[in-house]
Amino acid sequence: MFAVFCGTICGIITSGYPISVVASIAVAVLSITNNLICTTSDGLKVDCHLCGKPIPTQSVNSILEQNLNQQLFKCVPINSAFEAAISGFSSDIPWLVFSAFHIGKAVQVTQLGHRAAFFLISYLDSSLLGIGYSICGAELLLSPFIPSNTARGGGIVFPVVKSIIDLIKLPEEESGPVYAYLTMIGGHSNSITSSLFVTSMAGNPLVASTAEKVFGIKYSFTTWAKGCFVPGLFVLLVVPLIANHIYKPKFDTTLIRQEIVLQKSSLGPLSIKEWKLILILALCLVLWAGSSIFKIGSTIVAFSAILSLLLLDILVWNDIASNSAAWDTFYWLSIFFAFANQLSELGISAFIGKTLSFILEGTSPIVALVALSTVYYFSTYMFSSTTSHIVALVGPFMSAAKELNCNPFLFTAVISSFSTISACLAPYCCGCLAIYASLPYVKQNEWFYAGILSAGAHFLIFTVVGIPWYWAIGWL
């Protein structure tokens, strides 16, 4: 399983085939070879190659009891393996991504996104760097209130970024760097802001609760912000700089000022559809921000929003059916989500934690912290969801850190930040990045290149800014 997963990642980077094609090949190989964990009809988890075979007996009495009625594992080879390989389609995160695509579609077709873009640009100077920081600012303002980074980035900020791109009309040879620059800032800023508050991402409370269980510490909203906000803010500030370094976009935003004025006048007052959409988005914001109060998951909120868009005639079914980017991303993200679950069920995650504590035995707590956090950061390559990354590895890594006498508050702060900012490594590492990656402006290898550059910047900032900050607050 692990070998096929690594081969899939290499195939995505080097083959030139779409991610969905490479992921489909992996599904076929794993299903035919039964290299997965299957779930039997009576709820047992077994290696798929054992499906249909006798359940091993443990004693002479059990052998005698089974002589009359031989017990078999209640699953079918290959068929059950295929079901395991596509189990991600029933997970909520891919559906949240799928729903966010269509919310974004509604923002575009009603031209509400254009209005937001006009408002955004009107407060900027004549530079692409200013637009880049405005995108980061939008994510920052929304991050404490929306506990779904995919809903925040894909459903709200992404349509605005797309609208800004639509306003910038340049020859093809000049537009590429500009569009790619804005796309990358949108995706990476979402991952960074997801680390700043415990309420910024659905998986963050899992980190806090695990820290309480493993270390016996109280990691509250204020403690999280104390540990993550300052270094995270500096990380956010370098996002436009990295994108600018990669693409070196050239565009004078004053060139679109007149176009903005003309389009503003042509749009006229808010239409009925726009008011309906504003109401739906406002309700989504309230329900997402108050998910702990209303006990309604982010996915069902987003899915209900799609239904409302259809019933209120904001979208028609053909808008949903023809949104190929939504269907394509939903397809491959579901497959990767299943793969992530399989890696956890196969014990690869737990094995990593135990191995690391054994290898690092005898090292100083600081050296152990640096080593553990570095491996944790780059282990993100194995996951297509920040939540699944947290669920699979935070526990083992915190247990290893406790055995190695790492400072519990410092280690939790670093792991809390790295859980989400590490998603910048690859376009499949979180749902919102997958949405931005569906746009044709950033090539797949460029996402990975930007991820490596970002990783270097992240570690540099946590060294230059993080060390003095953690020393100042008494965690170092």
UniProtKB/TrEMBL annotation:
<feature type="transmembrane region" description="Helical">
    <location>
        <begin position="277"/>
        <end position="294"/>
    </location>
</feature>
<protein>
    <recommendedName>
        <fullName>Citrate transporter-like domain-containing protein</fullName>
    </recommendedName>
</protein>
<feature type="transmembrane region" description="Helical">
    <location>
        <begin position="330"/>
        <end position="352"/>
    </location>
</feature>
<keyword id="KW-0934">Plastid</keyword>
<keyword id="KW-1001">Plastid inner membrane</keyword>
<keyword id="KW-0472">Membrane</keyword>
<feature type="transmembrane region" description="Helical">
    <location>
        <begin position="448"/>
        <end position="471"/>
    </location>
</feature>
<dbReference type="GO" id="GO:0022857">
    <property type="term" value="F:transmembrane transporter activity"/>
</dbReference>
<dbReference type="InterPro" id="IPR030676">
    <property type="entry name" value="CitT-rel"/>
</dbReference>
<feature type="transmembrane region" description="Helical">
    <location>
        <begin position="229"/>
        <end position="247"/>
    </location>
</feature>
<dbReference type="Pfam" id="PF00939">
    <property type="entry name" value="Na_sulph_symp"/>
</dbReference>
<feature type="transmembrane region" description="Helical">
    <location>
        <begin position="300"/>
        <end position="318"/>
    </location>
</feature>
<keyword id="KW-0812">Transmembrane</keyword>
<comment type="similarity">
    <text>Belongs to the SLC13A/DASS transporter (TC 2.A.47) family. DIT1 subfamily.</text>
</comment>
<dbReference type="InterPro" id="IPR001898">
    <property type="entry name" value="SLC13A/DASS"/>
</dbReference>
<feature type="transmembrane region" description="Helical">
    <location>
        <begin position="358"/>
        <end position="378"/>
    </location>
</feature>
<dbReference type="GO" id="GO:0016020">
    <property type="term" value="C:membrane"/>
</dbReference>
<feature type="transmembrane region" description="Helical">
    <location>
        <begin position="409"/>
        <end position="436"/>
    </location>
</feature>
<keyword id="KW-1133">Transmembrane helix</keyword>
